[in-house]
Amino acid sequence: MEKLIPGLDKLLRIGTVVVLAVTLGYMLLATVSTTEDGEAPIGSFRTEDFNDGWVLHENGEEKPIRIPAAIDRKEGEEIVITNTLPEDLSNGMNLMLRAAMEDVLIYVDGKLRVEYSSENIEGMSFYIPSAYVVCALNQADSGKEIRIEICVKTQGAVNGVRIGHGNNVWFEVIRNGLSVNMIAAAVFIAGALLLIAVLVMQKYYHVSAARQLSLLMLNTAMWVFSESTLRQLFFTRPSLTQYFTFFTVELIAVLALSYFDEVQHRVYHKQYLLIESVAFLQIMINAVLHTVGFMQLYNTMMISHIWTGIAAVAATCGIVTDIIKGRTKEYKITVIGMICFVILSVTELVGFYVNRFHVFGTSLSIALLLLMLATIIQTIYDEVMANRERVNARTDMIIKTIQTIAGAIDARDVYTGGHSERVGYYAGRLAEEMAETYGLDAVDIMRIRYIGLVHDIGKIGVADNVLNKPGRLNDEEFSLMKKHAEIGYEMMRTMGDSIPGLPEGIHYHHERYDGKGYPDGLKGKEIPLVARILALCDSYDAMTSNRVYRKRLSEEAVREEIRSCAGTQFDPELAEIFLKMLEKGDLDAQTINGVAVDENGEIRTSTLLESRLLKDLMDKTKVTDPSHVRMLCYVMKLMEKKGIRYKVVYFGIAEHVPDGIATEQEMEILQRTIQAGIKNHDVMIRYTAKQYVVALYDAEDPAAQALTESVCEGYPMARAEILAEEKTEKASENKEDQNSDDKKE
Question: How far apart are CA 333 and CA 465, in angstroms?
């Protein structure tokens, strides 16, 4: 059933996508198809072009003309065209002509039928807004002369004329203007929703860029509506659009630069702010000049367009500079929308000057939708990355905590110093090797490595006399030692899914494949994969490290032990992969002669000190307090990870000095002599009855040699031994010697 569910789930998702695709296909077919057979009739919206047969009256001459046409005239001059109305007119028909900011008077049979002019509208400026002029016709007008007089104020354009029944003449206009107005409506709605979201979220998030974008979208949508060919259907008094049309178009540059400024993290704030300020001041000046009658808004528009062009240049320079300096990686998705916005905005501006019949708003609306889409995707991407960073930071904090705890565990356990780090390393390497077969990704590999690092965390709860007993454990002690898996599980299960598999790996890493392990006696694949990995790596490190009761096993003995335990103690598939890694040399024990090494193959001073302590305990040497030495080793490990090394020196009393009180008196003298030569960061510990161990902080051989000479000169009874570090070359030699010994064995 579990195998069936994933397949069914995948099939359902594919089927859903297919149905949606088919639905979209049918919708497109229903929209673009020209076949209407059998469909419900919708009636006729037919209109007729009335663009032929016109006569242009110019300087007393008559010239045939076909409209629409651009006719060069100066401001204040008239364009007069005449024609004969069709013979088949009927009552209820209308004639429509679009006035392009010009006064339009329509005469039928010499009588003024319609007037659309500045003088005819109270409070209207000289530059009257563009509008569709509709002239009612009837049957009596058939065959009569129609005369259209146009007072030129801007470009001298004569648009096409259409004749149709009723308001059918509007159908073509509505159909042609529907797309741009729908886009503008989408921009307006999206901008409004974005603004609402900003107002709700501004207390919790930095939303300055989103706020400026929402205002830009609302402003631009209002400009498109005010310039729309359908504005007579939107506004009861479309003549008032002369005011908000100019204000909204001039604000576009200000709001766009403000948005760019926030997206680009205010790097170009001074430049942008200067242009924004001048552009906004220009708007205020234009309003004042229009109000006092000195200069109308239309006459100041070119100046505003110049500042809009300057804003576009500044934005382009900012984007190009960011691309060159690599700063666009911070907004690499949004920058695509920004580039589209600049290009399409300039296209809109150029269209105003080069095309007298330019339809405003399409390019800019599309640009804003692209910009909004890019911004939304960027926001989602940023949030996903920020969340990933938060998760990584939290995971990193957990991992660092785990590393610290693992170090504390290893410091407590004198027999397994560095054991947790090595098991984590082996587990990570094994996970890499089995990744393709078992479907593990980089995150899984890292997770397994860190679970290995903390697998023995439960040893914190094991009594010191059990954990560090110099010899084999009896049955009672071993039963207590086995509890470390359950203790660790109870400690870490509260972390939930912070690191998936963490509690299970700790809990079951001593389970056996044959079911004879502990604590629950799980068998085969019942044991979680991470626990099966750890069981193998844990045993491998035990076999390749010195123990109180034996030296490390030879390489061949280790391989034979893994081979013989495959299927009983270890997962046979994992054991096979592990053995292949060992045989190919893809994995080496992180020890030399059973002693742990660091990532550079060097035996650290802390490890040498641990090894010396282990050897002395194995030889039944009476160490004063092993826990103090282990604590010193732990401190040294922490510093060594930061690159700070110690030099360790053993100071003792000459062999002929008797034990007892005399020895203690001599040891006190030795102690004072040593203390006179060490610093605050150095550590001195009583090692045995006749010996001190001194760890010199961040010191080299000369410092250690100077201290030994100083102590021996100050107290001739003293004897000193510097614990020598084994460098990489020495470590390599030792490893080669070990391999040779293995072959002999």
Answer: 62
pLDDT in tens, 656-686: 555 444 578 888 999 999 999 999 999 999 9
Q: What does CATH list as the number for 48-166?
A: 2.60.120.260
What mean pLDDT do residues 160-172 have?
89
For the segment 291-319, the average pLDDT, to the nearest whole number, is 86
Distance of CA 668 to the CA centre of its chain: 63
Q: In which element (H, E) is residue 70 found?
A: strand 69-70
Whole-angstrom distance, CA of residue 227 vs CA of residue 436? 61
pLDDT of residue 742: 36
Which pLDDT tens digit goes with each residue over 115-154? Answer: 999 888 877 778 888 889 999 999 999 999 999 999 998 8
Instruction: Determine the Cα angle at 676 with ends 673 and 677, to 5°.
Output: 100
Q: Are 430 and 578 in contact (CB under 8 A)?
A: yes
Contact in structure between 314 and 306 (CB atoms under 8 Å): no
Q: Which fold has domain 414-589?
A: Hypothetical protein af1432 (1.10.3210)
- CB 487, CB 466: distance < 8 Å: no
Which amino acid would we find at residue 467?
Answer: L
Question: d(Cα 422, Cα 597) in Å, to the nearest integer?
Answer: 9
pLDDT, tens digit, 9 for 90 and up, residues 704-731: 999 999 999 999 888 999 987 654 343 3
CA angle 245, 248, 251 (to 5 degrees): 145
DSSP state of 129: P
Q: Is beta strand 131-137 parallel, antiparallel or unpaired with respect to 111-116?
A: unpaired
Does domain 619-725 match CATH 2.60.40.10? Answer: no
DSSP 566: B
| Tokens at 378, concatenated | 């960027």
Give the closest residue to 530 by CA, choosing from 517, 544, 511, 514: 511
Q: Give DSSP secondary structure letters for 173-225.
A: HHHHHHHHHHHHHHHHHHHHHHHHHHHHHTTTS--HHHHHHHHHHHHHHHHHH
What is the Cα–Cα distance from 647 to 725, expressed in whole angstroms?
A: 8
Domain ranges within the chain, ordered by starting residue: 48-166, 177-385, 414-589, 619-725
Q: If DSSP states are collapsed to H, E and C, what string results for 455-477?
A: CCHHHHHCCHHHHCCCCCCCHHH
Query: Distance between CA atoms of 206 and 203, rounded to whole angstroms?
Result: 8
Read off φ and ψ for residue 162, nearest 5 degrees.
-130, 150
Please tell me the predicted confidence (pLDDT) of residue 732: 40
Q: Which pLDDT belongs to residue 179?
A: 85
Is the Cα dihedral 253, 256, 262, 266 positive or negative?
negative
Q: How many CB atoms lie within 10 A of CB 176?
A: 12
Interaxial angle between packed helices 419-433 and 529-543, expressed in degrees from 0 to 180 and rounded to the nearest 10:
130
